[in-house]
Design goal:
Blueprint (H helix, E strand, L loop, with lengths): L2 H5 L7 E5 L4 H12 L4 E6 L2 H13 L11 E6 L5 H15 L4 E4 L14 H29 L5 E6 L12 H23 L5 E8 L21 H14 L3 E4 L1 H12 L2 H11 L14
Parallel strand pairs: 1-2, 1-4, 2-3, 4-5, 5-6, 6-7
Length: 289
């Protein structure tokens, strides 16, 4: 199927659910969904006030989508570290807006520190719950209905990270959460394909550092500039529409994966540390205040 044919029916008239939707890339995904003609958009975020403000803005904006469609936009305050909250909010969202045609698992947190400096609950457990378990819990709630409705294309976009492909000092727990997401996301993609549910496509986005504030203080490795949120969202969204399995940006992410795969571990450590400066990229990390 051509990219043009795959993209055409996906967004117009669809129901879109985005986690971490109140700011950063999540907000950009929501604006793009509205601009491209989504019928309904569910904005999930722990910051309920900011999500409500964005919902009101999108609902009141002039119609710009082809076909003159104005989306119904609703905000949902939800703590993604809480499985029961996810289940309850998913049911409410589906009752009010319908089962999503497009699910964007975007929410995430990062803790940049030496592993033994992490707090077991506030850092380790919370990061794994929000970054790895929450997408699984939410997708598990929604996927059976997405599979059952083969009347239109379905899309799942999982926002992982290049950190899920390579080890990096001061990123152990975050990297672990994103390694988990990549393995899970790719496995679900294969399961859907093998079981004949081709109308549901899964895309995993693996970007390097993005200037959302989440990684404030981090330094991009050699030949790897920090991406703007707009550029990252465009790449992930277009890959999702086309049903591309994995989108890695920039090109150096794939290069690093290839080198790590063929070089002996100590040789790769030397290249990553002394040449590309991957291993020192988090040395000045401060994160979003």
């Amino acid at each position: 199927m051509s990219t043009k044919r795959a993209r055409q029916p996906v967004v117009p008239g669809s129901t879109v659910l985005i986690t971490g939707a109140a700011r950063g890339m999540g907000e950009l995904y929501a604006r793009r969904a509205a601009r491209e003609g989504a019928a309904a958009i569910a904005l999930w975020d722990v910051d309920g006030d900011r999500a409500e403000a964005l919902a009101a803005e999108l609902a009141a904006a002039p119609v710009t989508a082809r076909g003159g469609r104005k989306p119904e936009v609703r905000a949902y305050t939800v703590d993604l570290s809480d499985r029961e909250a996810i289940q309850q909010t998913a049911r409410l969202s589906c009752d009010e807006l319908g089962t999503p045609d497009i699910l964007v698992n975007n929410a995430g947190i990062v803790r940049g520190a030496l592993f033994w400096e992490h707090d077991p609950e506030r850092d380790i457990e919370l990061t794994m719950r929000v970054n790895a378990l929450a997408p699984m819990w939410l997708t598990r709630e929604l996927l059976p209905a997405m599979i059952a409705d083969a009347g239109r294309p379905k899309r799942i976009l999982n926002i992982a990270s290049a950190a899920g492909t390579l080890a990096n000092p001061r990123m152990s727990v975050y990297a672990a959460s994103k390694w988990a997401m990549i393995g899970w996301s790719e496995s679900v993609r294969l399961e859907l394909e093998r079981e004949g549910h081709g109308h549901v496509s899964v895309t995993t986005f693996c970007p390097s550092y993005i200037s959302t504030g989440m990684f404030a203080g981090a330094r991009g490795p050699l030949l790897t500039p920090i991406m703007t949120p707009e550029k990252a969202v465009r790449a992930a969204w277009e890959g999702m529409l086309a049903g591309v399995p994995i989108v890695s940006k920039p090109w150096t992410v794939k290069l690093a994966m290839a080198l790590r795969g063929v070089l002996p571990t100590r040789a790769w450590d030397a290249v990553a540390g002394r040449v590309f400066h991957v291993y020192s990229s988090m040395d000045r990390f401060t994160g979003r205040v």
